[in-house]
Design goal:
Blueprint lengths: L20 H30 L8 H6 L12 E8 L17 H13 L3 E10 L1 E3 H17 L4 E10 L1 H7 L3 E4 L4 E3 L4 E3 L4 H7 L23 H25 L5 H7 L4 E3 H7 L4 E2 L2 H12 L6 E5 L3 H7 L3 H6 L1 H9 L2 E5 L3
Helix pairs in contact: 3-4, 4-5
């Protein structure tokens, strides 16, 4: 019987394709490997960003700090909080590794000061300063720890602790810096931009309908008037007075008229700052730890907590990273917005 010319049975196109056992086995191991890899990666990021979740210092830090041991064996000790980069309260994040916002740092200082086993705090600062209100947020948190919780706070300056970085240092009980640290820059700056020349070349004009003549004061899309410059100068003057008062309160050994001569925006090395009384001592981590122990009356001061950017801080701030980093409108808005800052900038 010839079967070649007989019509074949119709195939069921909806039937699932058969998967052979070796393929199933490969899919299983690939899925398992992916899950294990993701768990390992998240655990690694958590350790990197938290320094052990804000608990005991890692083993490398325990070796680096004199007398530092695990918090399970130490009931009282010193906490270390790192402050890195420009101090601000950003509206969006650029993603991985961003420095924590000012409110996050201020919260960490307050929460650390509330811990009974923390007897002193070291602020490890490497910052050129930041926006006025953000700097003052951290300044107030330091005063909370120092005055309300009676926890001594030591400022440990790294490469740079200038302008707003010095502002928050002035609130601390003691300031320690390296001889080559750049600090000072006591002053205020308001940076504006003027796009009118560029816009005229590309044939774009901007306008504003406003309730008062100063409503768009500082706009980047028209020249600033002399009257507006005078108003901005008043704002700068008031913010400068707040800075000067904070430094005067923190450095009572410097007469106000002498301090005024140094508070003109200039920067100093750590050695120069020591000579004029802007800092208390030269040194690094060991000297800061010993100073914290002396003020807290700890015979063998030990680092029991290291706080840095936590993984969750980065993770929660990264949801809008893709849109904020790629949005031209967002970038233009950031450049165009006038910002008054305690910031050392070149």
């Amino acid at each position: 019987m010839d079967t070649q010319n007989q019509p074949s049975e119709p195939q069921n196109l909806n039937a699932p394709a058969a998967v052979n056992p070796p393929q199933q086995k490969r899919n299983f191991w690939l899925t398992l490997f992916t899950v294990v890899f993701l768990i390992s990666a998240l655990s690694g990021l958590y350790i990197i960003f938290t320094g052990g979740g804000g608990g005991p210092a890692p083993s490398a830090q325990r070796q680096r700090f004199t007398g530092t041991t695990s918090s399970s064996r130490v009931r009282e000790g010193v906490a270390l909080i790192r402050i890195r980069g420009v101090i601000s309260e950003p509206s969006g994040s650029s993603g991985f590794g961003d420095p924590a916002g000012a409110s996050t740092i201020a919260r960490r200082i307050r929460e650390t000061a509330d811990r009974n086993n923390v007897k002193a705090i070291i602020l490890d600062i490497n910052s050129p300063g930041g926006t006025v209100a953000a700097v003052q947020d951290i300044y107030n948190a330091i005063n909370y720890a120092k005055n309300k919780k009676s926890k001594p706070v030591i400022a440990l300056m790294r490469d740079v602790a200038a302008s707003g970085g010095y502002y928050i240092s002035a609130a601390c009980n003691k300031i320690i810096a390296q001889p080559g640290t750049l600090t000072g820059s006591i002053g205020v700056i308001l940076q504006t931009s003027d796009f009118t020349g560029l816009m005229s070349k590309v044939g774009v004009q901007f306008g504003a309908i406003k309730s008062g003549k100063f409503k768009d004061m500082g706009s980047s899309f028209r020249p600033m008037t002399d009257e507006e410059k005078a108003l901005f100068q008043d704002l700068i003057g008031d913010s400068y007075d707040q800075f000067f008062e904070a430094v005067s309160a923190g450095r009572p050994g410097i007469a106000p008229d002498v301090l005024k001569g140094y508070a003109d925006g200039r920067v100093f090395t750590g050695r120069q700052a020591l000579k004029i009384g802007l800092i208390d001592a030269l040194g690094g981590q060991d000297e800061a730890l010993q100073a914290a122990g002396d003020l807290a009356k700890l015979k063998n001061p030990q680092i029991i907590s290291v706080r840095t950017n936590s993984f969750m801080d980065w993770f929660t701030s990264s949801f809008d990273a893709e849109t904020s980093s790629k949005s031209v409108a967002k970038q233009l808005e950031a450049v165009a917005q006038p910002k008054m800052a305690y910031l050392w900038t070149i």
